[in-house]
Amino acid sequence: MPAHRIHDLLESALAELTPAPLLVAFSGGLDSSVLLHALAASPAARARGLRAVHVDHGLHGDSTNWSRHCQTFADSMGVELIVRTVDVTRNPGLGLEASARRARYGEIEALLAPGEIVALAHHRDDQAETVLLKLLRGAGPEGIGAMRPLRRIGRGFAWRPLLGLPRAALRDYAEQFQLTWIQDPSNADPTIDRNFLRLQVIPRIVQRWPEAETSIAQSAAWARAAAEFIDEEAERALARTQGLDPSTLRFREWLALPQALRDPVLRRWLRALDLPEPTYYQAAELVRQLGEAGEDRQPCVRWPGAEVRRYRDLLHALPPLQLPPFDWAAEFDGADLALPMDLGTLRLAGEAGSPRLARRLQVRFRRGGESLRLATGEHTRELRDLFQEAGIPPWQRGRLPLVFERDGALLAVADLWLSQTGARLLEPLGARLQWIARDMSPSATGGARPRIDLGDALS
Ligand SMILES: Nc1ncnc2c1ncn2[C@@H]1O[C@H](COP(=O)(O)OP(=O)(O)OP(=O)(O)O)[C@@H](O)[C@H]1O
Questions:
Q1: CATH architecture of 242-318
Q2: In this predicted structure, what is the pLDDT of residue 92?
Q3: Where are the domains of the chain?
């Protein structure tokens, strides 16, 4: 393909963009060198104050030299280059490549001014690799739709003007202008899935079906259109199926959604809660396990960083929960008591500060079989029954601090219930128990957090 075709293509693509500043994401590799070179030659791009950014991941011994090469290249075109160094901490759920990509996008996003456009040099061959990778991971329309020519990223937009061009066209351009570029040796490593597809699989497919990459890009475009339509529906469906507390989803209504909506609704819900999304397989497993478990069961599906549990008709999405150590116990005299893990603080709250008790009590967690006679009640009640009546999800029951007399009598369950003895102890002090849990969301107590003030309990 002659170079002027790439210039023409960029000119007309630029004309369709909102008039915003333009930043090129420049790795120094072949593709982004072509993109930067071609945009540097465009008066329309220059008029947008064209700049470039190179992110140094520090993962290769030569990465400082790569940054230097990028600087020289940008200087030779009179384009300002921003170099950012990132520390790639490997995310346990992701490989090194994906962790680096996430760090890179994070850095680029942070750089973008409102409305600013970052140009990425992805091309049609990249798109075909992405679609195949997504298929191999069991993706739905959203994933198979692969990369969009323009999408929101941070406060601005990611723009991929070369997405319709084959890699060969970019190589022709680079040769024509005698560009020099960095060869990242990791691109030749066939143990990386994307490289394996690019080096060993796609060439064979193209040998047999020469138009394969165009066809795959066409399928991606169809899938993307379907995904956009589904996404709009999913937004409405989420609003209909969410519980009163946004960290819950009404299970039966969610399950009754058309199959094409279930996964997108789930993902929207998790994203809004800032929880990591499951893989496509984990999501399918979630539907299966939660759907198949009987009414009386409390299924839980986990993946790194999140878990979804069902209790009664609600799904609860949470960060992974842990139970406090079984034998944990501490003395309590009314002053702030730090509970283990993320379970917050327990204290007495009075008119003026935190009154002290004449005798020390004990705080520990549930071990089973506890009961108490409520300040408001006639009979001794099993804690298990109280939990069930209040709809406190089973996974929270072992996380509520229990206050005991030294002789072992249960006086209070967090700040939810008080025994008659507990009420008699606190009344003269004009105090009530206060549990300041880090997670005060209603989902921590199953959407029902029955607050019982001492006043109520004694009336
Ligand atoms: N280190 C980086 N700094 C800035 N932008 C990058 C960097 N790595 C990749 N990009 C941008 O993301 C796009 C796609 O990333 P990919 O990992 O496929 O790039 P690459 O293999 O280095 O290719 P290229 O030849 O496009 O530079 C690149 O075309 C480039 O626009």
A1: Up-down Bundle (1.20)
A2: 64
A3: 3-213, 242-318, 329-458
Amino acid type, 401: P
Q: Does ligand 1 come within 6 angstroms of the Cβ of 149? A: no
CA-nearest residue for atom 18, ligand 1, is: 122
Ligand 1 pocket mutation, candidates 22, 31, 96, 97, criterion most atoms within 8 A of CB: 31
pLDDT at 452: 30
Ranges under pLDDT 70 in the chain: 90-94, 438-459
Nearest atom in ligand 1 to the alpha carbon of residue 24 is: 31
Q: What are phi and psi of 187, to 5 degrees?
A: -65, -15
Atom of ligand 1 lying closest to residue 28 CA: 27
- The CATH architecture that domain 3-213 belongs to is 3-Layer(aba) Sandwich (3.40)
What's the CA-to-centroid distance between 29 and ligand 1, angstroms? 7
Q: Does the ipTM exceed 0.85?
A: yes
Tell whether ligand 1 has an atom less than 6 A from the beta carbon of residue 162: no
Task: Burial-class residue 255 by CB neighbours within 10 Å (0-12, 13-18, 19+).
Answer: middle
pLDDT at 442: 40
- Answer yes or no: is the C-beta of 167 below 6 A from any ligand 1 atom: no
Q: Which atom of ligand 1 is nearest to the CA of 187?
A: 21
User: The whole model's pTM is what?
Assistant: 0.71
Please report the pLDDT score of residue 406 as a whole number.
86
